[in-house]
Write a structure and sequence with these properties.
- The chain is α+β, with helices and mostly antiparallel strands and 180 residues long.
- It is 17% helix and 41% strand.
- The chain is built from 2 helices and 12 strands.
- It has helices at residues 3-25, 30-37, and strands at residues 51-55, 58-60, 65-74, 79-81, 94-97, 103-109, 114-116, 125-128, 131-140, 147-157, 159-160, 169-179.
- Strands 1-3-9-6 form a 4-stranded antiparallel beta sheet, with no helix packed on it. It has a 4-stranded mixed beta sheet with strand order 2-12-10-5, with no helix packed on it.
- The longest helix has 23 residues, at 3-25.
Length: 180
């Protein structure tokens, strides 16, 4: 007589498991309501995500120098560290230009920083907010072929808001150069 209660218990357990499994895969009426009330998952903020970069075209005669303007647009509510930064542990905004097709970087002039107070720092921090223009002096070889080209560059940045700084990032860009 001990078999019928064991069989009954086994069948009841099996029925419970099958029932539970079938509910998780079904589209019940309460699921959409639960999803609609849930808050959206927070987006991951990155330095590259809050900064846009655009290079203006530059005309340079072969064997000469010219100035390219690189505009940084920082999303409202964020800033990037200036060059040089206030503290050595902060990552400065830094433009790197790879030499290509007879064009190379001579120097970079960074804009004047804004000095702002933030809750996480003891003293004013040197930052860029909104829009800032970097100036890259490019030089061409005397033997550089005439014509248009795109010179690869990258901008290293570290974006912050008024509470935290995000991991440093790199934005790839091209500088349009016309050698005449």
């Amino acid at each position: 007589m001990t078999r019928p209660p064991q069989v009954f218990f086994y069948c009841l357990t099996l029925l419970f498991v099958v029932s539970a499994c079938s509910r998780s895969g079904s589209n019940s009426v309460t699921e959409p309501a639960a999803k609609a009330g849930a808050s959206p998952s927070p987006q991951r903020i990155t330095s590259e995500g809050v900064v846009k970069v655009a290079a203006q075209p530059v005309q340079i005669s072969a064997g000469q120098s010219g100035e390219a303007v690189i505009r940084i647009t920082i999303q409202n509510g964020y800033h990037v560290n200036a060059n040089p930064p206030t503290y050595s542990y902060l990552k400065a905004t830094e433009l790197e230009v790879s030499p290509a097709e007879g064009v190379s970087l001579a120097s970079v002039t960074y804009p004047k920083a804004q000095n702002k107070k933030f809750p996480f720092a003891e003293k004013l921090l040197a930052v860029y907010e909104g829009e800032a223009d970097l100036k890259a002096t490019l030089k061409t070889d005397k033997a550089a072929k005439k014509g248009e080209r795109s010179i690869p560059a990258r901008l290293r940045i570290q974006a912050c808001d008024d509470q935290v700084c995000y991991p440093p990032g790199t934005v790839e860009l091209s500088i349009p150069v016309n050698v005449s």
